[in-house]
Design a protein that fits this description.
Layout (H helix, E strand, L loop, with lengths): L7 H43 L7 H15 L7 H9 L9 H15 L6 H13 L1 H5 L3 H20 L2 H10 L2 E2 L7 H17 L17 H35 L5 H17 L8 H7 L8 H14 L7 H19 L3 H17 L2 H12 L4 H14 L10 E2 L19
Helix pairs in contact: 1-4, 1-5, 1-7, 1-9, 2-4, 2-11, 3-7, 4-5, 5-7, 7-8, 7-9, 8-9, 8-16, 10-13, 10-14, 10-15, 10-17, 11-13, 12-14, 13-14, 14-15, 15-16, 15-17, 16-17
Protein name: Voltage-gated chloride channel protein
Main location: membrane
Membrane topology: Multi-pass membrane protein
Length: 420
């Protein structure tokens, strides 16, 4: 490289200025979109709870959304996986229609009672809106990758109110075992600013009270490690089950709109039989898990409802249902491990997500942002263990394996025979 007569730090200033501008624009777009989305979710959730009969229309709602995607959304149906693929191998700008389609699809899913989340929608909106800046600023492929990562970070941060976790999520989710440090500044700026934009619009995020902590001792660490194994296995089971359900529906039902029609009918019948505890975001149940014992089968109920909803084609995300599954599972494990309900609920909240998404660093930071710094040591341990025990699958099919999670010792058959 040809030497410059200016110090490296001087040459860095245009880079900082450029990405501060771009990240600020991404934050404004993504934060505003997420705020509108969260307000819409709050409204439709309240309406559904006061008009429970609407759940019987879930099959028709699923058919309508499936038909719309079939007609005008086939190029963006891959959702988060499309964004990850475009970061790995940039091809063309993500169509703008992805944002309104996933927004409408998710709001409809929640209005009529599907068990889906919200992260997928916010991330897709953030990435799509960010990518619209590519032709405007004539960005190269390498710069477009960074732009998309910043959009993912902004969407995640603004929908959960966790700016640091959102920034790391955008860096960590692309590949197991690797972080893209070339995007660290844009992702940080976009995530922090998007969170501020959301709050400026009046967004208020749920507060989870961490009412009990225990000192770090041998026995508490051993209990947390044991819980991490369970959380990782459940995260792996969720990812595999969701993919299996989706694959089963695609193999046996060729006409796409019929998949959510059938899935919606099954979910509606299950709600008639079991009640509404396992549909929607389930925030009240998550809060309850931090405060008192909940039914030990709650995590199974949410697991099955969410796999059925997402596997049949309803739009939304996986992360908030994973929070529900983790918090209620942690609540169920607390008496067995002799740890406080709130502590195990908080650890399960982030660890099942860490295992299912293969994002232990973002999940650890999220725990600190949501529950306070005192949970940091336990959160780090439980998220890493869950990450290791979840294997190399995950909820995002396009996530690649940069480095394997661990190196197993060679088996007897792998070893070379001794030299005589």
């Amino acid at each position: 490289m040809k030497p410059s007569r200016y110090p490296e730090q001087i040459l860095l200033l245009p880079y900082i200025g450029k990405w501060t501008l771009l990240a600020g624009l991404i934050a404004a777009l993504s934060g505003t979109a997420s705020a509108f989305f969260l307000f819409a979710l709050e409204f439709v959730t309240g309406w559904r709870e006061t008009h429970p009969w609407i759940i019987w229309l879930l099959p028709l709602a699923g058919f309508a959304v499936g038909w719309i995607y079939l007609k005008v959304g086939s190029s963006v149906e891959a959702g988060n996986n499309l964004l990850i693929d475009e970061i790995h191998d940039p091809q063309k700008v993500v169509p703008l229609r992805m944002a309104p389609l996933v927004l409408i699809g998710t709001v409809v899913s929640h209005l009529f009672g599907a068990s889906v989340g919200r992260e997928g929608t916010a991330v897709q909106m953030g990435g799509t809106l960010a990518d619209q800046l590519t032709p405007i600023f004539r960005l190269r492929h390498s710069e477009r990758r960074i732009l998309l990562m910043a959009g993912i970070s902004a969407g995640f941060a603004s929908v959960f109110g966790t700016p640091l976790a959102g920034a790391i999520f955008g860096l960590e989710v692309l590949a197991i075992g690797r972080l893209r440090y070339d995007a660290i500044f844009p992702c940080m700026v976009a995530a922090i600013a998007a969170d501020q934009v959301g709050m400026a619009w009046g967004v208020h995020h749920t507060h989870y009270a961490m009412t009990a902590m225990v000192p770090v001792t041998f026995w508490s660490v051993a209990a947390v490690l044991a819980a991490g194994i369970v959380f990782g296995l459940v995260g792996m089971a969720f990812a595999k089950s969701t993919h299996a359900a989706s694959g089963f529906m695609k193999r046996h039902i060729a006409y796409a709109p019929l998949r959510p029609l059938l899935g919606g009918a099954v979910v509606a019948l299950a709600v008639w039989w079991l009640g509404t505890r396992y549909i929607g975001l389930g925030i009240p149940v998550i809060v309850e898990a931090f405060q008192e014992p909940v039914a030990p089968w709650d995590f199974i109920g949410k697991f099955v409802f969410t796999v059925g909803s997402l596997g049949s084609g309803f739009k939304g995300g996986e992360v908030t249902p994973l929070f529900y599954i983790g918090a209620t599972l942690g609540n169920a494990l607390a008496p067995l491990l002799h740890l406080p309900f709130a502590l195990l609920a908080g650890l399960g909240f982030v660890a099942v997500f860490a295992g299912a998404a293969n994002t232990p660093l973002a999940s650890t930071i999220m725990a600190i942002e949501l529950f306070g710094p005192q949970i940091g040591p336990y959160a780090a341990l439980v998220c890493v263990v869950a990450y290791l025990f979840s294997g190399h699958c995950g909820i995002y099919r396009s996530q690649r394996v940069g480095l394997h999670k661990y190196r197993l010792p060679p088996t007897v058959s792998d070893r070379k025979p001794p030299v005589s």
